[in-house]
């Protein structure tokens, strides 16, 4: 671990006032990690990286005091929500301070289908607050019980609800953000619309999220169902058809190829060799959903009425990244991919990859709306052998026009932008973190900028 310049934990701590400081070794190590162990590559890479100290502010003034102290001592500062990210977003590569934002969690206001909350509020707590008023989150991660709104925005992509509302970063989903800069005298800035999205999926490298403003969805009574298929492409075509059914109000549309149902304890509904679709839809859509299933040779194996669904008893637990989590609990030799199939040709691409890789890369599809078109993302299980073979699998997908958001890299640009820097994200970094203290080592473009500055 690289020690920060001019950094004494004792001196640093004495300047923080009443900010909670966590220096206990066991807690400090735990709070320096996230779910990057999903990847055998990142698990090895991040071994040994940890913060020198963890702080847990509860007010904006305390956040500002942490920032001032870090800037004064040139101490790296890495932000953390609940640590449910998969790419090492919360792991400090140069020691210093991890700022745990999970205690900065107050709901602020709800009006006109828009909710404003502090960044440390958990997604599940948002819904507990808003559902009684008739509103719920448009999209949320499968880790909704733990994930914070700030962590979801800074590191997430989409999730439950994306079948209707698309990616979290689609225009109209997140309306505003209150951000603090990392300077000797921190500024607090309100960003609206596209400007707020400059901090989306930036791993907390280019500004400190204080508050977020989300557009909400009408809260509905959601039913759940498991549909079973003997042929995988029948299941995939069902997923596409359900997604395209404009009159079917839906929240989740997941397809899992054999043997994933067996791997994640859904064997009571699917025999070996069978494939499943997991759907969450409005109760009044159960009949048309069953008709679409029958058209694609599917059988509804289970239906759950809304009153029987709860946070602890929901199909969400078997979808998105929780599919991978459940598989990893049972099988230590697997990992995963994150792929984007092209709208209009996604079924063709899926069939090709399914036939080409077979049981080496069992297919997991999450259908979603991208720019008004129905397509799907793959979160395929991969039977891991070597890093070289994993790279070959990734390269094959990309050679066949299937975008890979590589979950086996800690570099921001490689993880979701095919290696290309986002100029707007970089501009925010320059403006809001001029000393480069926020989560250093994750944004390649910033390293290239500072190298050029040093040469100059």
TrEMBL record:
Q: Domain (FAD-binding PCMH-type): give its ranges.
A: 46-219
Q: Per UniProt, which keywords does this protein have?
A: FAD, Flavoprotein, Oxidoreductase
Signal peptide residues on this chain, from the entry's feature table: none
Q: Which Pfam families match?
A: FAD_binding_4
Q: Name one GO molecular function term.
A: D-lactate dehydrogenase (cytochrome) activity
The biological processes this protein is annotated with in GO are:
lactate catabolic process
- Please give the InterPro entries that the UniProt record associates with this protein: FAD-bd_PCMH, FAD-bd_PCMH-like_sf, FAD-bd_PCMH_sub2, FAD-linked_Oxase-like_C, Oxid_FAD_bind_N
Q: Which SUPFAM superfamilies does this UniProt record tie to the protein?
A: FAD-binding/transporter-associated domain-like (SSF56176), FAD-linked oxidases, C-terminal domain (SSF55103)
- EC assignment: the record states 1.1.3.15
Q: What is this protein called?
A: FAD-FMN-containing dehydrogenase protein
